[in-house]
Every structure is written in structure tokens, then in C-alpha cells.
Amino acid sequence: MTDSPTITLGAVNLDADDPVALAGFWQAAVGGEVSPGPAGTAFLQGRPGGFSMFFQPRSEPRPEHQAQHLDLDVPWGSRTREVERLIKMGATHRWDVLGEVPWVRWTTLADPEGNLFCVAEHPPAEPPA
Asked: Residue ranges of the Glyoxalase-like domain (predicted)?
């Protein structure tokens, strides 16, 4: 018998031009508490049930292609309101995907430093027939 894995997500790490400012954006976006760290770093301790983030100074130019991004879920019917809130905070709207598949619709945004992330909503499960 194989033991079940006990791995959990510790933190999402991002390079940033201004780690403290970017941590402030993400704190306002997802909650939690920011703690400044050494050498211009910042740590966002996630709220219960959320996730943490670590921001460190960028040491190289931003790659043209972003290999990973965050997919953030919101309750059905609240995506538009959340997207508007995030744009008011400094995010940039990139595109919407609303009818590609029936189980999710999402909006792709960029944070103030250009890191892509999605805000997704999933329809409520239909009751069994």
C-alpha cells in the first residue's frame, strides 16, 4: 500500500520590479497580511483557506512568454464584479473566455507588473434528474 502524499502549496513566488508594492496589490486582491522581508522582499501570508505569496526583486528581464499563471475562482455570478474591483486596483483586462466550455467562464487580467492571472466562475452543479 502506498502512503498518501502530504504535499501542500506553501507559496506562489513572483519576481517583481517593486516587491512591496506588488505584494500590496495582491493583499488587496486576495486578502492576508504582508510582511516586508530582507533585501526588498515581501511575504503575503494567505488568509485561512487561501494561499501565500513571496515577492522577490527581479534579477532578469521579464520573459516574453509567461509559462505559469494563477487561476482564481469566485462564486458563480460574481466574476464581473470581481474583475471590475481588480481593474480599479490596478489590474489590466486582457481577454474574456465566456463560451468555450460549459463548466467555466473566465477573464484573464494582468497585475500592475504584467503578471497574467485568471478570475473564473463555475456554474452551480445541476441537481440529479
From this structure: 12-119
